[in-house]
Amino acid sequence: MSFSSAVSGLHDAAVPERVGDHAAQRLDDVRSLMARELSEVEALIAARIAMGVAPATHSAAHLFKAGGKRVRPMGLLLAHACWSPIDDKARGLAAAAELVHMATLLHDDVVDDGDKRRGLPTSRRLWGNAVSVLAGDLLLVEALRLGSTADPTTWRELVETLGRLVEGEVVQLRGRLEVSLDEATYFEIIRGKTASLFEWALRSGAREGGAPEAAVMALGELGGHLGVAFQLVDDALDYEGDPRATGKSMLADLCEGKVTLPLIRAASVDYDGVSKLVSDVREGDAQAAQTLAARVRSSGACEEVRARALQETARALACLEGVPDCRARDVLADVARGLAARVS
Fold first, then answer.
1. 264 lies in a domain?
2. Mean pLDDT to the nearest integer, 286-313
3. Structural domain total, the chain
4. CB-CB contact of 328 with 83 (8 Å)
5. Which of 72, 73, 128, 158 has the fewest Cβ atoms within 10 angstroms?
């Protein structure tokens, strides 16, 4: 049964039933509820990938078939459904959001020399860096084509979002030359690299659904907080997650030279010791990486980061005050809570 048929009248009266009793299970519950809508978005993505030229299409399809949480298209569809039934334009924009995200992953794996993504060899490992970059470019072109059919403001904001994604990546890359344990720099990076696309997805979904401008901006703000919370949990999982569940190697971010908030918080307790270990890790010392990871975990930094993620989630939920009571609003709240509680 589809999301639309299971909860007919998404933009009508609220339904008291919750999607899940346990926060960590909410994402799976929402995916099941929205299975038909998400499968239609995925079919559109697959068709857009197939429009390209091999081997770029093979590289992009490899990443796509590896799966993913699809939280950006999910959020966009739910924001739209708070005001109007999900239609082809909403599905197209949802596909565009995921295409942009996939493009950044293909490019990131080249920049980071990544070997594993979602439990599988990265596209660059199988087809090489050049093909992986071009596959990412292919996905960006298709995302822009889909976005061009939307409201002119939505289209302009998509282009601006791409600029913020690039700027965030550049700031992060700059940090590899000169290690920064500054929290402000970290948040600048994740607001550009992660939160900006969440913002665009929620804002464009609401706008295309017919939401008033104040609600459009509120849902964009919700997306920003949601994106920050999502990245904070990801960064904690790099130190405490089970690689079988996360689909990537433990300490992958650390070994790629990325300074994330758990490391920054641990450094605030023992700056000299942590910074020395970071230098050793960057020189290829595997034992130093293990020592540093253990120190981060024992410092309580991961718990602090998860607490900050919950704060961002609370701020996201507060942005729903201007959204009409409806089933889609409740489900969107469940997505926010589920992202903060996830273990993979």
1. yes
2. 91
3. 1
4. no
5. 128
Which strand (E) or helix (H) includes residue 80? Answer: helix 71-81
pLDDT at 251: 67
Say how many CA atoms lie within 13 Å of 14 toward its Cβ: 12
Residue type (1 letter), 115: D
176: pLDDT strictly greater than 60? yes
For residue 278, what pLDDT band results from cuts at 50, 70 and 90? Answer: confident
Task: Round to whole Å and give the CA distance between 171 and 238.
Answer: 20
Contacts of 110 (CB under 8 A, 6+ apart): 124, 129, 132, 133
Name the amino acid, one letter, at 207: R
- The answer to whether position 15 is within a domain reads no
User: What's 296's domain CATH number?
Assistant: 1.10.600.10
- Write the DSSP assignment of 92-138 as a string of letters: HHHHHHHHHHHHHHHHHHHHTT--EETTEE-HHHHH-HHHHHHHHHH
**Tokens representing 43?**
């079919």
Question: For 105-127, how does the pLDDT look when each residue is reduced to its tens digit (9 = 90+)?
Answer: 999 999 988 888 888 999 999 99
**Contacting residues for 187 by C-beta, under 8 A, at least 6 apart:** 228
Q: Give the type of residue at 205.
A: G
CA 230 – CA 225 distance, rounded (Å)? 9
Q: Could you give the dihedral angle defined by the CA atoms of residues 221, 227, 230 and 236, in that order, rounded to the nearest 10 degrees? A: -110
Cα separation, 95 vs 145, in Å, equals: 11
Give first-to-last CA distance, the chain, whole Å.
27
**Residue 331, domain extent:** 21-341
Band of pLDDT at residue 343, cut at 50, 70 and 90: low
Name which of 35, 27, 28, 26 is nearest 4 in CA terms: 35
- Spell out the long-range contacts of 12-15 with Cβ–Cβ below 8 A and sequence spacing 24 or more: 12/326, 13/325, 13/326, 14/325, 14/326, 14/327, 14/329, 14/330, 15/326, 15/327, 15/330
Whose structure tokens read 């709240």? 333
